[in-house]
Amino acid sequence: MSVQIVDKISFTVIGKLGQGLAAEGPKWIPTLWQEAEHKFEEIQNLVKLDEEGNPVGLWGAMSDIAERFDRWTNQGKYLAGCEALDHCVAPPGWARWIIPSYKYAVIPCNQDTYQRQFNYMINEYLPSNGYSIVGAVHEHYKSNETNGNLYLYFPIHKL
């Protein structure tokens, strides 16, 4: 399995925010993505772009209910959105999170391998390499990849 260790400094995500039972995430999270996609024009001028003018990426950012960016318990919050300019203001109906700086263990997956890769990281890779999760896991979708891949970001050290 191709796990990378990366440092990512604090970044801003603007998106559609939801909260629900962790076990029912597959029921309530897709609605957030649909709403964000449907209303993207409302935030397109706030999106952070790469050198080629493409969005840096989409994030399925997660947090505990208190928004301390701790891991989900039986409930959690999910922000379906785009990496945005650091000092922007979220328009009405949108939420803005500043994700803290972390060192992450990152593994690629797709919807079919998501749960297997997640379990592998939790049960095998992290413990066997002396790591533990110190915050909420995030999903990163690179805008230049249209093959359905995403990257799971497991925070292993707060920077």
Which structural class is indicated by helix and strand composition? alpha+beta
CATH fold call: Multidrug-efflux Transporter 1 Regulator Bmrr, Chain A
Mind summarizing the main beta sheet? 8 strands, antiparallel
Poorly predicted tracts of residues? none
Task: Give a written overview of the molecule.
This protein is of the alpha+beta class and 159 residues long. The chain has a single domain (4-158), classed as Regulatory factor, effector binding domain (Multidrug-efflux Transporter 1 Regulator Bmrr, Chain A, Alpha-Beta Barrel), CATH 3.20.80. It contains two helices and eight strands. The protein has helices at residues 25-38, 114-128; strands spanning 4-8, 11-21, 58-63, 75-84, 95-99, 102-109, 138-141, 150-158. Strand 7 and strand 8 form a beta hairpin. The protein is globular and about 45 Å long. The protein starts with a strand and ends with a strand. The mean pLDDT is 95.
Please give a handful of descriptors for the protein shown.
Multidrug-efflux Transporter 1 Regulator Bmrr, Chain A, 36% strand, alpha+beta, 18% helix, globular, eight-stranded antiparallel beta sheet, 159 residues
List the helices and strands and how they pair.
Elements lengths: L3 E5 L2 E11 L3 H14 L19 E6 L11 E10 L10 E5 L2 E8 L4 H15 L9 E4 L8 E9 L1
Antiparallel strand pairs: 1-6, 2-4, 2-5, 3-4, 3-7, 6-8, 7-8
